[in-house]
Every structure is written in C-alpha cells, then in structure tokens.
Protein: FAD-binding domain-containing protein
Amino acid sequence: MAPKKAKTVAVVGAGLVGTLEACMMAKRGYEVHLYEYRQDIRQMEHVPGRSINLAMSVRGRTGLGAVGVEEQIVQRHGIAMKARMIHSLDGTTKSIPYNREGKCIFSVGRRFVNEVLLTRAEDFPNVTIHFNHKLEACDLERGEMTFTNTATGERVSTRADLMIGCDGAYSNVRKQMLKRAHFNYKQEYIPHGYMELCIPATPDGEFAMPPNYLHIWPRGNYMMIALPNQDRSWTVTLFMPFEIFGTLTTPEELLSFFQTNYPDAIPLIGREKLINDFFSNKPSANDISQVLAIPRGQHQRHHGRCRPRHGAILRTGDELRHGGLCSSE
Structure:
C-alpha cells in the first residue's frame, strides 16, 4: 500500500509569526509552502517596515525553543533587560525591576529574529519558501490561491489543505475573508503615532546609558523608550499624538520640545542627529483592528493584528507580541 501523502499547509507571510508557524507545522509532518510578498530579507540592505526591537519574555523564548533557535537568538544575540529605568524630567533615574527573583526580558533585533527563523525553516526538507509572491485571491472553501510573482509578473495558482494568514496589519488573506457573509471587522486608528530615533554609541564604542535596562521617559500623554542594540547603540521610539508631531515643524521647535520634555536625551542623541533623524522621518500610525465574528471555512486560519470577540476562531499575531514571542510594556 502506498504511503499516505502529507497534508499541505500554505502560510501566507514570512515575517516573524509566519516563519515560526511554518517551522511548527513542518515539525508536525505537514508539507509546508511559505509565501512572502517581499524578496528574501537576508539579501536586502534595508528592510522596509517596523524595526523597533523586540522585548522578548519567557513566552517568546518558549516559542523559539520549540523550533531549536532560542540559544542562537536569545543567549548569543539578546541583551538582558533586568528592569525598567525611568527617566524623570529633572534628569534623575529610578530602576523598577521586572521580577523579584531577578528574571528579565531580552532586547533582540526584529530583523535578526526573522532571518534566523527563515534559515531554520529552510532546514526542514518539507518546507518550500516562495519569495516575491503576492496573494491576489483565494477560495477559502476549496483552499485555492492565486499569487503574482512580483519579480516575473507570472500568475501562480496553487491549493492547500490549510491556509494560514500571517501577512500583517493590511493582510490580503483578511481582505479575502471580508468578502464572506457575516465576517464583521472594524479598524480604528488611535491618535498616537510613533517615530524611531537613535542614541549612538559613545566615541569609545560603549553604551551611552546603563545597558541592562529598558529605558522609559513617561510624560503623561506621550513617552519615549530606548532598547539596547548589539552595536552599543539604542533604538529609541517616540510615542505621542499626531497633533503634537504636527506642531514640530522647525529645528527650534523640536529642540524646545525636547528641552522641555526630554532634556537628558538631547546630549545622548546629539542635537544635529536629533534634528536630522526627526525631519528625515514621518511618524507611523498605530491601529486597532477588531474581528467580531468569523464564518468558519474548511481551509482557513488567520493570524492578524486583532482582538477576537464573540467566539471568533482566529489567533492573533502579525506582530510578535500577538504571536506570543514579545513582551508588552
């Protein structure tokens, strides 16, 4: 008797959650096809999208450990953050430990984690990765999908026994689900945006602040955080309402704002670097998506940035905190 053929799983989106999902499915013996709209990020100099570091907790380590990459990512690359370091307006700091037993979370680079998981997925003989594949349409009942190869323009049709959508906040899989009756969905943008800045290493190549902390500048309706990097720099993220971002239109207004709210950060970032980085970027938006009800399809499963309500069948996860790999402050 011929051996039973393994069921086929299609994972759409080879980001952090999609690559981990592909590895987990491969471990269970499925034939996995992983589709990604972008080219291979391991061959790209700059990767568009979010670059804010991950603050990885035990949940994330558990997921990475399940596919054999925890030590490579956390122990060899991660920087332990044993406490929050709170920066007050007067320049004083206060440490607030994460755990009485000395446990900690780890700062890890988002791109590094994604690249390691891609390589791990390739290690499985039953995983095939298809880069430059944009999902155009799918039949959730039949498990049929149509992609466009963005490198060649070729249309590619395929099918799978199970489709898993891990393709981000503006998911094409979810757009296809929206065409189904009784699929109730709501997207709402919060008034706050964020912008990434950077505190460079000191001239002698060291950290400009104590490294084993997640540094936070809480300022009521807005705040700033900084996470340490392997090159001794800090990834800084400024969170505040778009209306405040909109008032900072000149270098003088920006420096005055920082002098009022983050005076100790100016010498850390550097006046000229702060001006150049701020006006070279635009604040990014944050949205909250809600899936209120999902009609169950035979071939579908979805990971997306959403909050399930009323018996929804999906799991959340287009960002790592939703995928269970990232701690949330």
Remarks:
- The CA atoms of residues 52 and 79 lie 14 Å apart.
- DSSP finds ten helices and 20 strands in the chain.
- Confidence is low (pLDDT under 50) at residues 304-322.
